[in-house]
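Appendix B, record 7
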Amino acid sequence: MKTKNVLVIGSGGREASLVWKLLQSPQAGKIYAAPGNPGMQMNGCQTIPIAPTAENFPMLCLIASHLEIDLVVVGPDNCIAEGIEFHFRKAGIPVFSPSREAAQIEWSKVYAKELMKDIGIPTANFTVFREAVHARNGCQYIALPLVVKEDGLGLGKGARVCRTESEARQAIDDFMVKKIHGKAGEKILIENFLEGKELSIHVLCDGIPEHAIILPPVRDHKQLTADPDSPMTGGMGVFGPIDVSAKLMETIRNTIILPVLRELSGRGTPFVGLLYPGLMLTEKGPMVLEFNARWGDPECQWYMRHLHESVDLIEVLSACTEGRLDKIELQWNDTYGMVVTLATPGYPDNPKKNLHVWGRTYLRDYCPDDVIIFHAGTYWSNGEIITSGGRIFSVSTEWARKYGPTHRRKDLYELIQHPVCGVGSFEGMQYRTDIGQV
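Structure tokens (predicted):
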């Protein structure tokens, strides 16, 4: 079997888990990450210290050609939104990523909502505003609670649930006047709040709608804490699989997944990569909260842990780029699992950086075999691991389903909280304590 060299774009927990699984492929030649992180290096990945910003896309393509890269796997949403796929495709290098045009379903919430409205995909009623003064006036006519969303990418923080008119006005000012997320808030939409339970659906796509493979449903925890009024984040943990009926999954496929993929193809922007609709299970059935055009984080960590060891991830992702996903059959471990995100103090609004992570050997010496830690916001400094962002580690475990859905919760949290060898311990570490509660 010919080996393949793979380049993963990104440096977070999502990309770390992709690297971890790619390295297990029988086709794995050399696995690179740009820019990568210390955890990837520890697993045997070679990192390329180049930030994947738009001005560096041509340089990354040249490097990929020089390294004889056979497959590029793009993780971050901003890279996809800035059109990184075009550069690699133009260079003739297969890339697991939607085009910028297809990914507009994520980087423009207004575009996504109007598309859903046009083709009848169930979602909350909404109104679009382009001026803050109009939004302030308009919010008083929308039933509370309501949701204020930025049109553009807000790194998981561009949506707020507002229970009072005052909170809605504050969100409008933050997004449109103060522009806390830059251009993302040039337009906003205000929509009705949906009651129910959230569900994360991930779909592998190869550009042909009928070939789409829906992965097992999981539940993400987007807010910082269990308090419903706590701030939104990029994701604080995940549990799965969520036991839902075959009938519900068929409904999701027929009323949401296939219609949107067919519409994108009809518009000349077929979707190749990972489509991730966040859903709310309401009394009226599943409704779309938003569409994402890449793996969720930390959902990706869960999926990489639960893919059966026989699954060759390089083969799966290559099939997506070649339009032959219908030839792929996925197998999953018969396990429950959870991922807990460890974040710095001040996250999500003002994360404290450059904190020392005590202990170097905890990664291998203190962890049970069923616990894997994926680095996210870390870097090396004088041989020590230092925090570089808001979400620092994803701590994951899984266990046989015969033991029930809560079997390993207590053990994992005890490991995280250990005063001496707690995984990834750093000053002011914060995390949710309710991941996996059933």
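Remarks on this record: Residues 336-417 form a domain with the Glycinamide Ribonucleotide Synthetase; Chain A, domain 4 fold (CATH 3.90.600.10). The first strand starts at residue 4 and ends at 10.
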